[in-house]
Automatic annotation (TrEMBL):
Keywords: Acyltransferase, Cell membrane, Membrane, Transferase, Transmembrane, Transmembrane helix. This is Acyltransferase. InterPro entries: Acyl_transf_3_dom. Pfam families: Acyl_transf_3. One of its GO terms (molecular function) is O-acetyltransferase activity. The keyword Acyltransferase applies. Residues 9-311 form the Acyltransferase domain. Belongs to the acyltransferase 3 family. It comes from the Bacteria. One of its GO terms (biological process) is enterobacterial common antigen biosynthetic process. It comes from Pseudomonas arsenicoxydans. It is found in: Cell membrane.
Amino acid sequence: MQSKKKSLEIETLRGLACLLLVLYHVIGPLGGGLKIDLGSPFRVLADSMVYVRMPLFTFISGYIYSIYKIRGNDFSAYCTGKVRRLIVPLFFVGVPFSVLQAVAPGVNKDVGLIQALLSFYVPVNHFWFLQAVFIIFMFVGFLQWRGLLQTTTRLYLLFLFSAVAFLLPPFAVDAFGINGAFYLLPFFVTGMICHEKVAVIKQSLKVIGPVVFVLISIALLYIAAVDRELIVDRRSLVGLLVGCASCVALLSSDMRSKALIWLGGYSYAIFLFHVLFAASSRFAFGRLGIADDSILVIGGVLCGLLGPVLLSNVFSRFALTSVLFLGERATGKKTPTPELKVSQS
């Protein structure tokens, strides 16, 4: 098992997850974002990410959770920390963003004001991840606190349970992101298992792992280009297998990148605010009469990545804004947390 030192390969994967997330939301789903039509290479790229993007984010969360997992009888403090980290930004970033989306002219997504005000309960934007991963942290943390995850065998049993739940039909009402929690749980548990077996994985898969990921990527790109309907269903057996295999393969590559490590240090801010900056760039380019897809995508990705970095540095300077908008501790002290990043809490 690794020590609690900062893992450069995990920070690199965190930065990669940020890049994939922002790129997807800049391009957008069919009819959203830049409204790029079928047949475009950017549409193919966006559709091919569906089995890797959020699974990778969640896999990293599970891996880091295993480093800083709850121990002893501090479950109440653990819960308080997760509320501060995930639920406070949900109310002070997620709900206002949804309201802004509901009242602002020219947005791609039709969100009603009442729906926006209730988005803390039934998610309508990418903030569903906060609700879903909060449920996962409460569930896994409780099991850990009760001593039910002491062995790797029990982790495998938890993965089996999560895989069955993943394949079940979703609930009619996605109350507090419960459907998202069932979707993400297998990847979270995979991250936990991989932390326990990381040395073996890196040793045994150091050659074949990267090759497998390249082959998966090529296959996904081809399928997305030929028939996107075969690839957009995330909650399927193929989605489960491809998502888990991709995450394990990426971990085995032991990839290091200074640029991605730097981005990974701001992953939570990027997750929270990237859509705001990406949408602003789209509006600005539109006012300038720029219509070239390549410029719009590259400009949107740069704004979606760098804008939140600047905002994070501003918010972190003040106790109130760091708590409300970043979920950090009121003291401003940076301590490791497992939600979306290690280097900042």
